[in-house]
Design brief:
- The complex is a heterodimer of chains A (about 100) and B (about 675).
- In chain A, about 75% of the residues lie in helices and about 0% in strands.
- By secondary structure, chain A is an all-alpha fold.
- Chain A has a domain of about 70 residues.
- Chain A is elongated, with a radius of gyration of 17 Å.
- The longest helix of chain B is centred in the last third of the chain and has 73 residues.
- Helix content of chain B is about 70%, strand content about 0%.
- Classes of the chains: A mainly alpha (about 100), B mainly alpha (about 675).
- At the A-B interface, helix 1 of A face helix 27 of B.
Chain lengths: ~100, ~675
């Protein structure tokens, strides 16, 4: 396997794991963790294609990743704040109990 | 044996920090029920890295040039390559050996102390992470690697201080430690970036191109910035602030006494080997930057004064505390101040010697404190103890050795010689007698409050109301005490002025046996003796016959009056921060809240009213005009729709699953169609 293929395998594994967590976990915090995993799988792709592609000296790949890490940090902060507020309202972070929007 | 080992060292040395880190990583995946395996894994990994560290120490015993191991290129970013590497010199070798050795005994002690803990395995995982990170700090040859490991140390200390996170006070203490040290870390980070932008390297030693070598130092000294400071002085000040945060110097010390909320072995680790030593070590490591330019540099002067003030402040506060561990915590703050005084007054070797001796006797003191608390069923108030030397004779002997080393009992104990070295370097400092006087009075108070603690806990009669049936601890907890006590005594062999082996070794020279040296420093030795005698004597006079009643006020409280309460509250630093920092923040948050309530809520209310009114109006027209014919149709539709609306479960994950399913179907269709 070429290094790029290995990286892509790793990132797709990470993405799948993250997706699995998002789809099956009932704890909102662990769902957030799953989302972070999926984001970082995308970051690995960025770095991989940059490193084993034409390797642009303008560092486009790492720059994208830096931005996406910054955004992920902001997203985690907002997400955790939302979960905290939800917990204060309902005393639970169980997603199955948070279904007041049902039909 | 040394010759056969030397060529393998560059590869072996990486394993010193890596083994505990790997062990910590493995333990993270073990279930909590496998705590026994976790403790064996952690201790085993640390034992092996202790052996390697001792071998490295043996290899670095012969005085020679600093050995920087082939730096690895971590990553290349355009033209810039960031390198990391390890470093073996007397400084890092002695620290690595001390950290692994002391921590190993703390690990063994923990297997006994934490035996009833349900998160036993997790505890050892965190401990391993803590030690691995600290060893990386110690051995790193790059300021960047040092900083990363430094942050890991901070993370591990956060996790361990908050180990009993169900307790709100423990969770708060963990956050306090994390946030307070973050203030210092920010300064450290800025200083690091500044140094990098000026010199283009973060390696300490790199065959002449390193940060601490003459080329970079000259360029740092030559460039002036604000206020006529050279860049090295300004960056040195920033690094000093970082060290102050980590090493609990005034005014960033408030987290350290609160860190008592963690389990006692963690306190021993934090106070002796891993956490607070990092700041002092960092200053010692980057000392060439601090001393750059020669003479009395600004960062060194700042370092000496901060250290002196911290030493005296914490010793004063320790006098008035009643919690066993809190007294020890303030004594750590005070001793760290001593080390800073030494570093600031060009006594790097004296400071490091005190750091290492302190690690031994402070770990010993905390572990015996743990043994006492364990035997007293969790009681920590020294006023409720008393007469414990009978039921806990072995713990008492170990404690007594640690206590005498800390208060600087003459000749036999390491603390006496290392403290004497610090006083010597402060006395001969060119920048005045200030730090010397501060340190000397702190030494006097140290003897005073340690004697007070010993008298109240171990002597006299049991007090009422007090502890019921104190008992001795199991031998898995006592053996580490003996080992550390032996270390606290034996270390004085390498530290006396007669044979100042350690100091010469750190400075890269070899020591000669000189019995005449004792007479040169006779004045200072006499002074140290006098200090200890006065401190112990005064304490003995006051506390030799404590009241039988454990609720009686301290004998000194009446004499000192309001001053006593001021000291009891640690001179009000916490209250000050509460008012000066948390107060304005809370005020600002309250203001925003008020704005929302006063402005946005009424506005939204008005909009809501308008829309509602309009809706009523249209509703009424609807009802009377159009609706009637539709109603029968609608009720029919509603009944049919009820079954459809059941799929709207309100659970986001169910929706996501359908989206995923739909997307897979579409993808399959797409490939199927395009394949045809």
């Amino acid at each position: 396997m070429t290094p790029l293929a290995m990286l892509l395998t790793l990132s797709s594994l990470m993405f799948t794991l993250g997706l699995l967590a998002v789809l099956t976990r009932r704890n909102a915090i662990l769902v957030l963790v799953g989302i972070e995993l999926m984001l970082n799988a995308a970051n690995i792709n960025f770095i991989g294609f940059w490193r084993y592609g034409p390797s642009d000296p303008a560092l486009t790949g790492p720059m994208f990743v830096l931005f996406s890490i910054a955004i992920a940090a902001a997203e985690a902060a907002v997400g955790l704040a939302i979960i905290l507020m939800v917990f204060r309202h309902t005393r639970s972070t169980d997603l199955n109990k948070l279904d007041s929007l049902h039909g | 044996m040394v010759e056969t080992l030397t060529p393998h060292l560059p590869n072996l040395l990486w394993w010193v920090p890596l083994l505990p880190l790997i062990a910590g990583g493995i333990i993270a995946f073990l279930p909590d029920a496998r705590g026994r395996i976790a403790s064996k894994l952690a201790s085993g990994a640390l034992f092996v890295s202790c052996l390697i560290a001792l071998a490295a120490l043996a290899c670095s015993l012969t005085p020679k040039e600093v050995e920087a191991f082939a730096p690895l290129t971590w990553f290349t970013f355009g033209d810039v390559a960031l390198k990391v590497g390890l470093l073996l010199d007397p400084l890092s070798a002695s620290m690595a050996a001390m950290v692994t050795f002391v921590a190993l005994w703390i690990f063994i002690y923990s297997t006994g102390y934490m035996a009833d803990e349900k998160r036993f395995g997790r505890f050892f995982g965190f401990l391993s992470l803590f030690c691995g990170a600290m060893l990386m700090v110690v051995l790193s040859n790059s300021l960047l690697l040092l900083f990363m490991a430094w942050e890991l140390v901070g993370l591990a200390s956060y996790l361990l201080i908050g180990f009993y996170f169900e307790k709100p006070s423990a969770a708060a203490a963990a956050q306090k430690a994390f946030i307070t040290t973050r203030v210092g870390d920010m300064a450290f980070f800025l200083g690091m970036i500044w140094l990098y932008s000026q010199t283009g390297t973060l390696l300490f030693y790199d065959g002449g191109n390193g940060l601490l070598e003459s080329g970079a130092l000259a360029s740092l000294a030559g460039t002036a910035t604000i206020g006529g400071l050279s860049v090295s002085a300004a960056a040195g000040l920033l690094l000093l602030v970082g060290a102050m945060g980590k090493s609990g110097q005034v005014p960033l010390h408030t987290w350290l006494p609160d860190a008592m909320e963690g389990p006692t072995p963690v306190s021993a680790l934090i106070h002796a080997a891993t956490m607070v030593a990092a700041g002092v070590f960092m200053v010692a490591r980057t000392h060439p930057i601090f001393a750059n330019g020669g003479g009395l540099t600004v960062p060194l002067t700042a370092c000496a004064w901060v250290g002196g003030i911290t030493a005296l402040y914490a010793a004063l506060v320790a006098m008035a505390q009643t919690d066993f561990k809190r007294i020890l915590a303030y004594s750590t703050v005070s001793q760290l101040g001593f080390m800073m005084v030494a570093l600031g007054t060009d006594g790097v070797a004296a400071g490091m010697l005190h750091l290492i001796c302190h690690a031994f006797f402070k770990a010993l003191l905390f572990l015996s404190a743990g043994s006492v608390i364990h035997g007293c069923h969790g009681e920590q108030d020294i006023r409720k103890m008393g007469g414990l030397s009978k039921p806990m004779r072995r713990t008492f002997i170990a404690y007594a050795i640690g206590m005498m080393a800390l208060s600087g009992f003459p000749f036999l104990f390491s603390g006496f010689w290392s403290k004497e070295g610090i006083l010597h370097s402060a006395q001969t400092w060119a920048g005045g007698y200030g730090p010397f006087l501060l340190a000397a009075s702190a030494a006097l108070l140290t003897a005073f409050y340690m004697t007070r603690q010993a008298l109240l806990v171990f002597f006299g009669e049991p007090r009422k109301p007090g502890v019921h049936h104190p008992h001795e601890s199991p031998s898995v907890m006592l053996v580490p005490l003996y080992v550390l006590a032996a270390g606290a005594v034996l270390l004085s062999l390498i530290a006396t002025p007669i044979w100042p082996w350690f100091e010469k070794w750190i400075d890269g020279e070899s020591a000669v046996f000189d019995s005449g040296a004792l007479s040169h420093g006779l004045g200072l030795i006499a002074l140290s003796l006098g200090i200890v005698t006065v401190g112990v004597g005064a304490s003995w006079m006051i506390y030799r016959k404590p009241s039988e009643n454990s609720n009686a006020p301290d004998p000194l409280a009446g004499k000192l009056g309001p001053l006593w309460h001021f000291l009891e509250r640690a001179m009000g630093f916490d209250a000050l921060y509460e008012k000066a920092i948390i107060g304005p923040l809370a005020f600002f948050a309250g203001g925003v809240d008020m704005l929302e309530r006063m402005l946005f809520v009424p506005l939204m209310g008005m909009a809501e009213g308008l829309i509602k009114g309009f809706g009523r109006l249209t509703g009424a027209t609807d009802e009377s005009g159009i609706n009637r014919g539709f109603n029968s149709l609608c009720s029919e539709l509603k009944n049919r729709a009820a079954s459809a609306s059941r799929s709207q479960s309100g659970r986001p994950q169910a929706y996501l699953r359908s989206i995923g399913l739909g997307m897979s179907v579409l993808l399959i269709l797409y490939f199927w169609l395009s394949a045809r």
